[in-house]
Design brief:
There is one protein chain. By secondary structure, the chain is mainly alpha-helical. The protein contains ten helices and four strands. It has two domains: about 10-110; about 120-165, no CATH class. Helices cover about 55% and strands about 5% of the residues. Helix 1 (about 10-20) crosses helix 2 (about 20-35). GO terms for molecular function: DNA binding.
Length: about 200
């Protein structure tokens, strides 16, 4: 059975009607996702992929033997040519489902997902000079050079305002994280004591 990626609103209700016991099991799944404070997109992606599998086998996912689950996942990636993210979401959703119903052994037998780590692209000196010289306006050149020298991300650069860059009483405004800022404290600088006459 090959199927197109259907959206959440058609796959899950269809599985609730067609697969016996899926409606009650899926309500437990949804409750647990809410209690674990999972995002709505995570809940819908996991739920849709679990519903796909339940429709494919005609029974609850935890009633399917692990070797059939693995052949199902193999067919998804090789023959149906679905994306790797669909495969990952199905595996993670099944792990969550198995743990929910106390089947930790089956969750451990799920295929492991490789995490590919890519190295950042490092520019040469000449490439940096070319990038900094590319903008026509001086302020754009300055912003690029400033961001590069300070190691700022683009969203941090867009949050900069002139008052953050200005010096006030010899203290600079420092940023502690992406969104929070700390302002210089006036009590840090010693105040002149009044002389009594």
């Amino acid at each position: 059975m090959t199927f197109k990626k259907e959206n959440y609103t058609t796959t899950v209700p269809k599985a609730k009607v067609v697969v016996p016991g899926f409606k009650q099991a899926f309500s437990q799944f949804e409750e647990r996702m809410v209690l674990d404070q999972c995002s709505k997109s995570m809940a819908s992606n996991y739920g849709r992929n679990i519903a796909h599998m339940a429709l494919h086998f005609g029974k609850l996912p935890h009633e399917v033997p692990i070797d059939q689950v693995n052949s199902y996942l193999y067919r998804l990636t090789v023959y149906d040519n679905l994306s790797i993210s669909f495969f990952k979401q199905t595996v993670f959703g099944l792990r969550y489902w198995y743990r929910l119903f106390g089947l930790n052994d089956q969750a451990l037998h799920m295929p492991s997902i490789k995490h590919t780590q890519t190295l950042p692209t490092v520019l040469s000196k000449q490439e940096c000079k070319d990038i900094f010289a590319a903008p026509r306006l001086l302020k754009h050149r300055f912003l690029l050079a400033f961001a590069y020298a300070a190691g700022l991300r683009m969203n941090e650069l867009s949050l900069l305002t002139p008052c953050l860059l200005a010096k006030k009483k010899g203290n600079e405004t420092k940023r502690t994280s992406k969104r929070k800022e700390t302002k210089p404290n006036d009590h840090e600088t010693p105040k002149k004591e009044r002389k009594r006459t």
